[in-house]
Amino acid sequence: MKQRLYIDTSVFGGLFDEExxxxxxPLFERIQKGEFILLFSVVTQDELTLAPENVRKLVENxxxxxxxxxxxxxxxxxxxxxxxx
Length: 85
Known about the structure:
The chain is α/β, with parallel strands linked by helices. The chain is built from 5 helices and 3 strands.
């Protein structure tokens, strides 16, 4: 079974940032090779719609078979609320 990863939206932009590309490039290469399943949520999708074009294109080029969409559940919202407050 492939490892599933949920990464913060800022990691996508890190590929194009000189300071972080050394670390993010190998990660995205492995995602493209199908070594991981990249998890997306509504939050990730919403944030990525506001991202620069090069970041949006990166996301668009990830093979659909290497991704999984996670639904937001009431339980997840309750847990997040407890962490915030």
